[in-house]
Amino acid sequence: MIQRLAVIGGGLIGGSVVRAARKAGAAASIAVGDVNPAVVARVAELGIADLSTADLSQAVKGADLVIFAVPVLAMNQALKAALPGLAPGAILSDVGSVKGAVADALALLAPEGAFVIPGHPIAGTEQSGPDAGFAELFENRWTILTPLSDAPDYLAAVDKLSAFWTAIGANVELMDARHHDLVLAVTSHLPHLIAYNIVGTAADLEEVTQAEVMKYSAGGFRDFTRIAASDPVMWRDIFIANKDAVLEILGRFTEDLQALSRAIRWGEADKLEELFTRTREIRRGVIAAGQESAEPNFGRDRK
User: Fold this and answer.
1) 72, 90, 96, 163: which could join 237 in a potential S-S bond, CB 3.0 to 4.6 Å?
2) Model's pTM, two decimal places?
3) May I ask the CATH architecture of the domain 178-267?
4) CATH code reported for the domain at 2-175
5) Average pLDDT over residues 56-82
6) Of all helices (H) and strands (E), which one includes residue 56?
């Protein structure tokens, strides 16, 4: 399917892509490029790629599929470094959580004849680095592709990229880039922003010590800390690159939060119960869609 796969960035997502591709036999050869020498060395030690190098142009040499798995705001620099080695007709994609800004950056710099197809696998953990990746990360998870053209040869490249993601276990959806950014602002970016903020608030409370916060963490706060442990550089870039959509959804959230505050202040029990009942159905819908376990405590061992 893919003769030579090049992944730029050897962290959680990049490392999972190469592991999944090798496990599924989705690429004949695999190269990883990363500007961090420690990551290059660790990828080589793990043996998850045929080539591991800090020379990005060498990593992409001869590749028919190049996937950029770097922070969103590092995409320009990574593509510039890789440009000299890019093969004519190569598919250029990414795994970033923001698509509008990435699409603009890649399309502006890509060489003539390359097929720029922005992508986003909706999968991950709070861990980072080469050791954090695993081949099963994308199984039954959605990967969204945001095509930029409807030309026949371009659509053939989209089909090829879709087949690659399907081969490593993902479900593929095509979507407009700007709509993607709005959807992800609701389902991912705002929840992370809330998690970072509430954990920061708890840490700053003078009346509660950090030792108490850690010792008495209830389930809700504990799950916020998991989200808030995500890669700070990656999420810094996401909020900067998707600021318009995030601020739009944040404004709506703030209005809803004020309404909820009033309901609590005035003891409007019916309003609270109605909201909590409605949101409970969302959780059930996520489980029904196969995107979460129905087991108590997310299936975690409670010992």
Assistant:
1) 72
2) 0.85
3) Orthogonal Bundle (1.10)
4) 3.40.50.720
5) 94
6) helix 56-59
